[in-house]
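Could you help me review a protein record that somebody else here produced? This is what I was given.
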Amino acid sequence: MSPVHQSDESTKFYTILVFSENIAGLLNQITAVFTRRQVNIESLNVSASSTPGVHKYTITCYCTLEMVKMLKAQIEKRIDVLQARYFTDDDIFLQETSLLKISTPAMLENPDVCRIIRQHGAHIVEVNPTYSAVEKTGATEHILSLFDALNKLGVVRQFARSGRICITRGTREYLDDYLAEREKEKTLPPAPPL
């Protein structure tokens, strides 16, 4: 199941991948599409993509299939957007990263803290007399499971979770196909006037 909640049977958790040129203000335009449709963004991650000069936006939200299709169409209308596609969790490989700051004295007093960290495959990346930093990378539900287990012990002082990053499961890179087609169209001779 996808993270956090689901409001009704027709609502699903979608990941929308948007590829664009690196243009200032585009993020605002993209998020405005969600605001106008009253769809809450659950997570948002923006980074450079594997294609030089192209940025990748990974946006997650709960909505209906009809709404995600509308969001995709509205996002693609933005002049600097190259492509937008939506996926369910079955269509992608996904990861998140989290950091937890826990009390070092509480960790030393309670052996369950280290046991829980090991059981969840997390790593202690910093230890000092005041706090310890724990890093966990994985699926959202695994990250939240670690947080819940440590939080029940009362040792968590801070918690931060990245937005989702993902790649598609298929062998095709849709953006590469799109860019190749666009380049092919540029090399075609112009159509004769009517």
Q: What stands out?
A: Residues 9 and 161 are 27 Å apart (CA to CA). The longest strand covers residues 92-103. The chain is about 35% helix and 35% strand. The chain has two domains: 12-87, 93-161.
